[in-house]
Amino acid sequence: MSQAQAKLKMTGEESSKIQKFLEKTLKTPGLALRARPQAADSVEVLVNGEYVGLIHKDLDEGETSYIFTMTILDIDLDE
Question: Number of folded domains in the chain?
Answer without folding.
Answer: 1
